[in-house]
Specification:
The complex is a heterodimer of chains A (113) and B (117).
Chain A: E1 4-6, E2 10-13, E3 19-25, E4 31-38, E5 42-51, E6 54-57, E7 64-70, E8 73-78, E9 87-94, E10 103-104, E11 108-112
Parallel strand pairs in A: 2-11
Antiparallel strand pairs in A: 1-3, 3-8, 4-5, 4-9, 5-6, 7-8, 9-10, 9-11
Chain B: E1 3-5, E2 10-14, E3 19-21, E4 24-26, E5 32-39, E6 46-52, E7 60-61, E8 64-69, E9 74-79, E10 88-96, E11 105-107, E12 111-116
Parallel strand pairs in B: 2-12
Antiparallel strand pairs in B: 1-4, 3-9, 5-6, 5-10, 7-8, 8-9, 10-11, 10-12
The chains are: A mainly beta (113), B mainly beta (117).
Amino acid sequence: DVKVTQSSRYLVKRTGEKVFLECVQDMDHENMFWYRQDPGLGLRLIYFSYDVKMKEKGDIPEGYSVSREKKERFSLILESASTNQTSMYLCASSLTGVNTEAFFGQGTRLTVV
Amino acid sequence: AQKITQTQPGMFVQEKEAVTLDCTYDTSDQSYGLFWYKQPSSGEMIFLIYQGSYDEQNATEGRYSLNFQKARKSANLVISASQLGDSAMYFCAIRGGSGTSYGKLTFGQGTILTVHP
């Protein structure tokens, strides 16, 4: 069965902390994505990766970085967490191609205090 | 750049009736894919249906169909015979097929559907 696993369901961090959100997929997918979901704004793409060590900025990359050292793992890094980064974060993966659906993790609700 | 617009923040429908959720898109790509996802209150993202830009027929999957009007750049989701379990958030998304949008998957703001008994 297809699986995308995010390391934490809930996370509380302090302002200024460095935060790592981890995502692992077991489907040998080339593409991986990080989104944040906020009420009224839908899902907004932060970064995506189309291969190991390859990344592309999404629509809202400011304040975030990513790492993809292995095909199955895609990490989202908040270098210095701020309260406006409090949100639901969703990771997804897919094969390459316009006709391939993305599979999502269960989400991480991050609160920055 | 590609963009999805969902103009209906909330929709209500009576059980067993049909409902249409609107989605318009903007892209300069010739090749692209359009997707609909459902997100129940549990938070999981469930893939519903896909339409390719070169597909001549509208996609259907059970009670879901996609009303694809390429010239108008719209990809509305039609749910027939609504059920209480259809109450959820629905997202439209586009996947780019070339240039700077290649592989990128962009979502809209979502529409909350409430099905009344």
